[in-house]
Amino acid sequence: MKMKTHMTSASGVIxxxxxxxxxxxxxxxxxLNKIVDVFWAxxxxxxxxxxxxxxxxxxxxxxxxxxxxxxxxxxxxxxxxSLKYALGALNLFDVTDTxxxxxxxxxxxxxxxxxxxxxxxxxxxxxxxxxxxxxxxxNRMFQRCFEDKQYKQVVGIALETxxxxxxxxxxxxxxxxxxMLAYSLKVCLSHIMSRHFRNDVLRVLTELYMRLKSPDYxxxxxxxxxxxxxxxxxxxxxxxxxxxxxxxxxALQIAFDLYESxxxxxLQEVQNWLRQVAPAPLPSMKTEEEKQVAPTVENKEEKMExxxxxxxxxxxxxxxxxxxxxxxxxxxxxxxxxxTILGGENTIKLHLDFLIRNNKTDSLILKNTKxxxxxxxxxxxxxxxxxxxxCGTTCDQxxxxxxxxxxxxxxxxxxxxxxxxxxxxxxxxxxxxxFMSTYLPKDSSPGxxxxxxxxxxxxxxxxxxxxxxxxxxxxxxxxxxxNEMVRHGGxxxxxxxxxxxxxxxxxxxxxxxLYQDDAVTGEAAGLAMGLVMLGTKNDAAIxxxxxxxxxxxxxxILRGLSVGIALTMxxxxxxxxxxxxxxxxxxxxxxxxxxxxxxxxxxxxxGNNQAIRKLLHIAVSDVNxxxxxxxxxxxxxxxxxxxxxxxxxxSLLSESYNPxxxxxxxxxxxxxxxGTGLKEALTLLEPMTNDxxxxxxxxxxxxxxxxxxxxxxxxxxxxxxxxQLYTKVITDKHDDVMxxxxxxxxxxxxxxxxxxxTISLQSRTGHTNMEAVVGMLxxxxxxxxxxxxxFLSLAFKPTCIIGLNSNxxxxxxxxxxNAKPSTFAYPPHLEEKKDKTKEKVKTAVLSITAKQKxxxxxxxxxxxxxxxxxxxxxxxxxxxxxxxxxxEKKEVVKDKKEEGxxEKKEEEKEKKPEANFExxxxxxxxxxAQLRMITMPDASRYTSVKDVTSGGLIMLHNRKPDDLEDLVxxxxxxxxxxxxxxxxxxxxxxxxxxx
Length: 995
Fold this sequence. Notes:
- Residues 8-276 form the 26S proteasome non-ATPase regulatory subunit 1/RPN2 N-terminal domain.
- Component of the 19S proteasome regulatory particle complex. The 26S proteasome consists of a 20S core particle (CP) and two 19S regulatory subunits (RP).
- Belongs to the proteasome subunit S1 family.
- By secondary structure, the protein is mainly alpha-helical.
- Among the domains are: 16-93, no CATH class; 216-311 and 328-343, no CATH class; 821-827 and 915-978, no CATH class.
- The protein has 46 helices and 9 strands.
- Strands 6-3-9-8 form a 4-stranded mixed beta sheet, covered by helices on one side. A 3-stranded antiparallel beta sheet has the order 5-4-7, with no helix packed on it. Strands 1-2 form a two-stranded antiparallel ribbon.
- A hairpin with a 7-residue loop joins strand 8 and strand 9.
- Helix 9 (164-173) packs antiparallel against helix 10 and helix 26 packs parallel to helix 28.
- The longest helix has 44 residues, at 868-911.
- The relative contact order is 0.06.
């Protein structure tokens, strides 16, 4: 019978390494390889002997010696040495093994390989030679993934290690290339930090998309937007618009997606190309109203990078072209459609229609707030909240009903109140100069300069990121303005309208206003310069702004320029690193916090670890509170693509001893988690609403509304608590004004856009939403200047699905929502408390007076004898009183019974089972979380060109083109109308005499 023996020491095996026989040494190494995980400490003393065997070229099992040495060093914690000998082990290092040792070394191997690959890609001059053994291990890891069909893992590793060949191979060999392409595009946009490498990957993706049997032109054009390749987009549009009906619908869909995702400059370049390929000159986009009001303004919009011939051609109206053939006329009509869509007219008009049609604002909230506040600051806050609640709805009824209350606004409060009309009428571009004429500068009868400045600012808010001809009107007004209030509003309005266009004439005019060295004008001019040069990284512009910022003595100008500089670096990623370094080392704290905003804008939505590390370092180390606050706030701009990470990053900062850091943490949560209703974010914000410092409470209240926008009790139960909290803070007479300001704004944000908009810093197509990011950044400056609060309206995006036919009209069609109607329903409106009829209260009778009256009554009885008839007549009165009491009791019992019956009926109604789905009419309100549950009904007459779960504007293919279409009737916008004014009555008959 054999006995099992257990080794207690490896000394015997180690001693075999000293034997001269090579076979014994090999046996010893094989044995040591098996027992190294147990006796590594003992073997470590002889590791030098094992290294000698590995380094001896005559030894035939060098790879085995290297493997044993690698394992020993792994247990010793010397991972670099362990990796070195693992590479020497060659094929003996089994990458398929799942042991902790192999997993650790593979990770170290991958880190080393990635580091070398990145260095070689970014610094080609000092490129390092790649260790062939290291590359061999990585290749074996790739091969293993291919064998197991783990293609998503291959894509991740390939992007991390900069292996484009493996990335392409993974997509081509996958079972579903189109799904793999969609996944790869998503990973590329969210995880690749290097702008240069990301562009290389996107070019590969476009090639692969085009190789599909039916190319996905919609996704290809999204890639081209990131590559800033307007020519390729124009070529695709030209190809599709000349194809069959399905191709034409795709072209229109791409045009709508382009307007949502691309910059004004990009869209203008595509429009310029369409002008060239059109059979006849395209019509000018100038509206009739603008021609009437501003006939003298020259067309300067198309000056940038466009020759004089093209500009003249664009400005000329489309002449009648009898020489065109039928095919050319048809093509011309289609190109005009594309041109107008790229101009944004259709999108803005449809969103405006949707917001007006579905306006569910609860006016009682505003009424209660108005009645509760008396402070001038809270008055302004209520006006701003009203504009948020009615953003894009064109409903200014609350202001009309409270004109006397509104008239209390004076000076800059008047400026803010007038500008709020721009938020209410956002996108209402038709007749804009007519219905805003009361508040615009006029030569004939000069009005309030604050109203006129606010009016110009309002025009910018209405035309934000869609200036068109209004930029020329604003430019003309700014040139003629002599008052600082009008210039302030003019600069802000012009910056908003010309956002991202980089038009040199506009930039020059803003610079002229900056150099006037007026604090109020300079602040707006500095900010507007950044808006015009948004994301251009224009070195000359940045140099001018930075030099002036370092020289000026005005803090307001410095603040405006600081935000403007940050905006010029929007989306530039590592290209901004040098400027960030320069700004963050400046002695002026305002320029240092400009560096933080610049970093946030450059890496916006990237989640870049290096940028986050820099912001966190400044947040805890800078000596200035403003810089620390801005650094923490900026974290929100970096993390909005992964909102669940933000609470983890700022959780400790939210408990900081420094109130500015706590405020920054609250705003970071609001920005990153906007519209998500994230529980973790609310858990951090809730205690901050009771913070001892009032401006921290203000930030927490605003941030909570940003997180909870469009949430109801089912999607986020906490929303009821926060609604009650806002009301409590506003109605509490003893609460601080700063907290009240935050609570009033929070109410406006929570029910923004008639409860039909959300806040999202990324578009439906996955792009960073430039307009929303800019709006959110400038909104944060309300800390210094309240009128900038209106910029938040740029971040409001309608949550809708709007189906369109080939004529860009809305057919009557339904979308199926596979969720209970109550899940995404509107929050219930407040119920107005009914005034109860006041009953007469019986006067209190004291015991002393009662006794006195009793005595007097007894005396009268003795003095006067009562008649029997009188006594008899009293009896029926007593009886009637008793019967009345009985009847009253019966009525009360009846009322109670009726109330009980009503309650039972209500309970029965509630008990009725709710449907598991809902059919939504076009245009439909569909919240972000609801999108994945949306489908087209099977029996529907229409099919969508792209997946309806993406939301937004969707082109529909009519399966029954011969049948008559039932269309949704357009709805009229609200607001003041000139034609509504009654005509004066004719004078009474009279005789004229010459006396």
